[in-house]
Design goal:
The protein has 444 residues and is an alpha/beta fold. The chain folds into 2 domains: 7-141, Rossmann fold; 207-441, no CATH class. The protein contains 18 helices and 14 strands. The protein has a 7-stranded mixed β-sheet with strand order 7-9-10-11-12-14-13, with helices on both faces. A 5-stranded parallel β-sheet has the order 2-3-4-1-5, with helices on both faces. A two-stranded antiparallel ribbon has the order 6-8. α9 (173-186) packs across α14.
């Protein structure tokens, strides 16, 4: 079983004196149910409801008062009601709007009960068919497995600790890069990672990828409210993986005849389902980062492994020594984007990149992050690409001296001078530290 780092966040939540019911939000098959099952081991009593079961739904639909509801929950779980720390997990909660609305009463009347809710189609229905009680629940985002979690699943427990602290010895750099390349190849979907750890066979993962894709395609039937929208959603889920890591236009997306307005609406539906993110640019140099929604966004899907499988580039990646050289560098950028998001539990949390706000300028920095009220540029480049022209243009305008390059080389800090004469410090950070950039740039 894969240990998920977010369990430490769940443990912190469970210890709060003013703890609200927690709603886990994330795409299908990112491991929400398994995560809560793991967390439930910490409790003397673990109660579980699945609102795909009619008898479980009826507990909420025929609600009289909190006392009878709690009695019913204990009875359907076949356990005696005790005054002991108890975790209640309500899975597939989107199937009962009544259960959603009653979460407020758990908060108000049973503060000793730890309540977690989740659902496989939850994201697409929030704001449309269901609405959580404002101010009486809190949210936590669940993403595919990070590289750090992948290391643990592979049995490299000590390397996992060293990676998390940013202290992998230089002598183990080739080993760490090789493992990261494996992670970039298969991605972070928990079922994929679990299967790969058993036999290290990439070809054997095809069945799982196909199952994931079929599930996402089937879900489009439930997201769509019209036949026209259903066709557009199917088109995006079928062809959109080939545009991963690239800037896109909605008008006639994927060589279709669909128009901008309807394609944009379909993308936003899939974004709410957390299958993808439309990453918008920013042309500013100071915090806060404000996405410019009228510009073309960059398309990032929830998982790079699925992208590799659908786009048919697994074979190419299997043989590369530097992931930045694969598929025009898009996969390297995509997996770094995935790592930037993987450890963040805030919902929603978005990624951004930078473009120069100048006529006929094509200057672009792959990502920008906010660190200590500064906007830090992050470029994803292979070791032999040291020009970094866009990065220099960005650094000429900011009032700090920190920039980041993610690459396949070892960690180092270069003193760089731009063509205009500004001196800054370029943190060359190995791919396997992409998820802990802020830790690495705090080094002196």
């Amino acid at each position: 079983m894969i240990y998920r780092n977010i369990i430490s966040n769940l443990q912190e939540w469970s210890k709060r004196s003013k703890r609200k019911p927690l709603v886990l939000r994330g795409a299908r098959q990112v491991g929400k149910t398994t995560l809560v099952d793991q967390f439930g081991v910490d409790f003397p009593l673990y109660l579980k409801l699945n609102l795909e079961e009619p008898e479980h739904i009826r507990l909420f639909e025929f609600y009289e008062n909190m006392e009878t509801l709690l009695t019913g929950i204990y009875l359907v779980n076949g356990v005696e009601r005790k005054d002991t720390p108890t975790l209640l997990f309500i899975d597939e909660i989107q199937n009962s709007p009544r259960a959603v609305s009653l979460l407020r009463y758990f908060y108000e009347k049973t503060p000793q009960l730890h309540v977690v809710a989740a659902g496989s189609l939850l994201e697409s229905l929030v704001g449309r068919q269901i609405s959580f009680p404002v101010g009486r629940v809190e949210y936590m985002a669940v993403h595919p497995c990070s590289f750090n979690e992948f290391l643990g699943a592979m049995g490299n427990v000590e390397l996992k600790k060293a990676q998390q602290a940013g202290k992998i010895p230089e002598s183990l750099h080739p080993m760490a890069i090789n493992l990261f390349n494996q992670y970039a190849l298969i991605g972070g979907m928990p079922e994929v990672v679990a299967q790969y750890t058993q036999n290290r066979d990439v070809l054997a993962l095809g069945r799982i990828y196909n199952s994931l894709l079929s599930g996402y395609q089937d879900d489009t039937e439930k997201y769509a409210q019209t036949d026209s929208m259903r066709h557009i959603l199917r088109h995006i889920v079928k062809t959109g993986w080939n545009y991963a890591g690239q800037r896109i236009k909605f008008e006639r997306f994927g060589e279709s005849d669909y128009r901008s307005r309807e394609v944009g609406e379909a993308f936003r539906l899939l974004e709410r389902a957390m299958l993808l993110e439309l990453v918008y640019p920013n042309s500013g140099y100071r915090a806060p980062i404000l996405p410019e929604l009228k510009r073309s966004p960059k398309l990032l899907w929830l998982d790079t492994g699925i992208v590799n499988y659908v786009a048919g580039i697994q074979k190419e990646l299997f043989h590369v020594k530097d992931v930045a050289d694969a598929w025009r560098g898009n996969i390297a950028e995509h997996i770094v984007g995935q790592e930037l998001l993987s450890g963040n539990i805030l919902f929603p949390d978005r990624r951004n990149f930078w473009v120069r706000n100048a006529h006929s300028s094509e200057a672009e920095v792959d990502f920008i992050i906010q660190h200590n009220n500064q906007i830090i540029p992050v470029e994803v480049k292979s070791g032999h690409n040291s020009k970094l022209r866009s990065l220099h243009l960005f650094m000429d305008e900011v009032d700090h001296t920190t920039a980041v390059r993610i690459w396949s080389g070892k960690f180092s800090i270069d003193k760089v001078v731009t063509p205009k004469g500004k001196t800054f410090y370029l943190y060359n950070i190995p791919f396997y530290y992409a998820g802990i950039i802020e830790t690495m740039i705090n080094r002196k």
